[in-house]
Specification:
The protein is mainly alpha-helical. It has 19 helices and no strands.
Length: 507
């Protein structure tokens, strides 16, 4: 379900690239969409989910159904009223938000008013999608993973429909996309309600800030905002800085980031979503052996996917971007610039994915402060690296946006490394718990399989030239062939080196 959602999201971005390209209107829309989307990740997928799921799992393990329902009612009421106030303030203060998050737009007579107008339309999406996240967290806690995973499909359908069907009726056409975002929020929220009703957990909102469960969740949320969302804060800082760079920089980073997010969303976020309720229950039932084994399995699975995905993105960056986006208003220069930033993001893909599965090791134990401290260190390092990378790349080669992506990747490795070291030091995670599949054996398998895959893909690329001259269909056929070739070589080398399907089971 997650893969279907992400693939449709990729199709959505192909449509957007064809209709709005990387022009001023595109920059304005991506800023207007990124601000509420960033806050959504804090409230829906980030701090709220990581604070709410462990407490809800504890109520479910140790309490009655009525106690769980009472907690849900009060959390819904408190979260709903808070987000309503935030949304109302943001709609009124839209010009100020544009100034803060896109300072490079202030003197632009096109991008500034357009971004401000679209922020007013898109920001209520935060309220709707955060309530959707609340519903999804409840369903995930009851092991109903498919419904929350398929829900984002509605966002992609709404945006594609807005671009293809509604855009001609708006002036400028990009405004239609902002209304599509708002419609998507409504559709996603309404879609999940029947499934909560089946569990007899449909919320009846009540505002009670003194409830013990609500107070615990709020206490956990505050530090979790930094702990889980450091990479998102870094990406938002990239948008702020990119607005100061040449027109198109925001869009170049958006398109490259979206491709890097595909394996992150399909696999790492899916695994993190699944293991958090399990880790929370294992912690509540005091089973440290299973807790460590679950983390170990998640890290192994991430490495098996992240390393080849990162290498393949670096090798195939330009063909992928040409095949998906170089149509309509997207130019050859846009593809060249996006290729550079995609390779920089791909360098950090393994770290981005590891963060997603290591952070639940803290959140499941309701330890929010440690990830906060680590997150602050990663944020500071990202800011310092932005200064070190962006200035020389901008003034020497005029590719300052690549420095932003590179700084984000390096800081992600710092974040992941500190998270992993902390779990090992506390004795919560003990790598290498499987006698039939040791870590040295896994490292050798990854080295052999990825080395063979990269060699074959590099040789194959030398035989192919003229991607920019081909039409859509030849590009798709050749790219599909390269992806299938790389996947086949990788899988065969893993099998030849001794990896078996039984090793992939979490038991």
């Amino acid at each position: 379900m997650t893969m279907l959602s992400r693939v449709l999201g990729l199709i959505r971005d192909i449509v957007l690239a064809r209709f709005i390209g990387a022009e001023a209107g595109a920059d304005a829309f991506f800023v207007a969409f990124k601000i509420p989307n960033f806050l959504r990740r804090l409230f829906a997928e980030g701090a709220f989910a990581q604070a709410f799921v462990p407490v809800l799992s504890e109520y479910r393990t140790q309490g009655s159904h009525a106690a769980v329902k009472g907690l849900i009612d009060r959390v819904t009421g408190c979260l709903g009223i808070t987000l309503t106030l935030i949304t109302a303030f943001a709609v009124l203060a839209a010009p100020a938000l544009t100034t803060v998050f896109a300072p490079g737009f202030v003197d632009d007579p096109v991008r500034f008013p357009l971004a401000t107008e679209m922020i007013r339309i898109t920001f209520p999406y935060l309220l709707l999608i955060s309530m959707t996240g609340l519903a999804g967290s409840i369903l995930n806690s009851y092991d109903r993973f498919a419904v929350p995973a398929i829900t984002p499909v509605l966002l992609n359908i709404a945006l594609i429909s807005s671009a293809v069907l509604a855009a001609p009726y708006f002036d400028p056409p990009v405004i239609a996309l902002a209304w599509g975002v708002l419609a998507a929020g409504m559709l996603q929220f309404l879609f999940q309600l029947p499934f909560l009703w089946r569990l007899q957990l449909l919320p009846s909102p009540k505002v009670d800030w003194k409830d013990d469960g609500v107070k615990r969740i709020l206490a956990l949320m505050a530090p979790a905002i930094f702990g889980v969302s450091v990479s998102q804060i870094n990406l938002l800082l990239d948008t702020v800085l990119a607005s100061l760079l040449p027109t198109g920089s925001v869009s170049w980073l958006y398109y490259s980031d979206r491709l890097a997010e595909l394996p992150l969303g399909v696999f790492a976020i899916a695994i993190a979503t699944v293991i958090l309720p399990g880790l929370s229950r294992q912690h509540a039932s005091e089973d440290p052996r299973k807790f460590s084994a679950t983390l170990d399995w998640a890290v192994r699975m991430v490495l098996l996917v992240a390393v080849p995905a990162a290498l393949a993105l670096m090798l195939l960056a330009e063909p992928i971007l040409m095949t998906l986006f170089q149509y309509g208003k997207t130019t050859v220069d846009d593809i060249a610039m996006s290729t550079l930033s995609l390779r920089a993001y791909a360098l950090g893909l393994t770290a981005f994915m590891l963060i997603k599965v290591l952070a639940p090791g803290y959140f499941a134990r309701q330890d929010m402060m440690t990830p906060v401290k680590i997150g602050i260190k990663a944020m500071i390092s990202n800011m310092v690296l932005n200064v070190l990378f962006v200035a020389p790349l901008y003034f020497i080669w005029n590719i300052g946006h690549v420095g932003l992506a590179l700084a984000t990747s390096v800081s992600a490795f710092i974040n992941a490394g500190l998270l992993g070291r902390g779990l090992v030091r506390e004795g919560v995670y003990r790598p290498g718990g499987r006698s039939d599949w040791t870590w040295p054996r896994l490292a050798l398998q990854l080295l052999l399989a990825n080395g063979a895959m990269c060699a074959v893909l590099w040789l194959a690329l030398q035989q192919l030239d003229g991607w920019a001259l081909w039409g859509w269909w030849p590009r798709v056929l050749h790219l599909g062939g390269l992806c299938l070739l790389g996947l086949t070589i990788y899988a065969l080398m893993l099998l030849a080196s001794g990896l078996r399907f039984r090793h992939l089971r979490a038991g």
